[in-house]
Amino acid sequence: MTKNTTKAHLALLGANIIYGANYIIAKGIMPNKIGPSAFVFIRLSCCALLFWVIKFLFIKEKVEKKDLFRLALCGLFGGALNQMLFFHGINLTSPIDASIIQTSNPILVLIFSLIILKEQLTRNKITGITIAAVGAIFLILYGNKAQGSSSFLGNLFVFLNACSYGLYLVIAKTLMQKYHAITVVSWVFLFGFIYAFPIGINDFLNTDFKSFTTNTYLTVGYVVLFTTFFAYLFNIYALKYLSPAVTSSYVYLQPVVSFFMVSTLAYVFMQSDYAQDISLIKILSCILVAAGVYIVSKPKKNKST
């Protein structure tokens, strides 16, 4: 079990480094080369195919009919809805803002765990939720007035994405105790593709693929293969051995990776738009959210009797 737990932590480390880089990489080709809905359509269709090929070849496991509803919910919140909200959000706002807002995910996971998994509510959890919420809400509202590429609507979409993904993690945990990771994620992407099809098909068909450069194809390939296929596989594997709260806590790596990449673009490659995305207010918002989750995750001291 210890060996599996270590692998689970390494999987989460890899997944969140991939996610942290994705804020910059995915935004780089939207909306000039491809729209958010078309991007999600490609992401879901390619990965649904990949996962089902692997399942067909290696994982001979059937799911019970009573679990299809929960898998359909996972497909909605962890496949279609969260990806649509994220890509439309990152299309409108700053990569820094998006990565900071995502740090509210552990708090959202905690809230959903309290409701669905009936976890106990403590004073630390109430205090932490309040502090983190202040940081996240302040950043979302600040996006309306900030310089750079910040946006209130974009920040709101990213926050709703974090809500959707947090709910997905809690629901998926109940399934991971019963099925193989490949089985769960295959159904998640199949349902996600079904939900996203009517929204994304027209944008996909109207995309000018002739205008794609080598960089465009490499970016799409990164998002499909790494941000979607490997990252989802790593996360769903980790859920088998770790709680949703631990899984979501790795989100704090994402702003670090995003800050590093934005700083590189701003001060090494001299892209002034990215330089305006780094501000004291955003750093303070990040600290508030991080402090809130630290308080939530702080172990309860045992009183001596």
Describe what this molecule looks like in 3D.
This protein is mostly helical. The protein has one domain (2-297). Helices cover 77% and strands 0% of the residues. It has helices at residues 2-27, 36-58, 68-92, 95-101, 105-116, 123-142, 152-176, 181-205, 214-241, 244-249, 253-267, 272-275, 280-297. Helix 3 (68-92) packs antiparallel against helix 7, helix 5 (105-116) crosses helix 7 and helix 6 (123-142) packs antiparallel against helix 13 (280-297). The radius of gyration is 19 Å and the shape is globular. It starts with a helix and ends in an 8-residue tail after the last helix.
Shape: globular
* Total of DSSP H or I helical runs spanning 4+ residues: 13
Distance between the termini: 32 Å
CA radius of gyration: 19 Å
Q: Could you say which structural class the secondary elements and strand pairing correspond to?
A: mainly alpha
Assembly type of the chains comes to single chain
Count of β-strands: 0
* Element order: H for helix, E for strand: HHHHHHHHHHHHH
Range of strand content: under 5%
Relative helix content: over 70%
Mean pLDDT: 84
Count of spatially separate domains: 1
Which ranges are low-confidence, i.e. pLDDT below 50, for 5 or more consecutive residues?
none
Characterize the biggest β-sheet: none
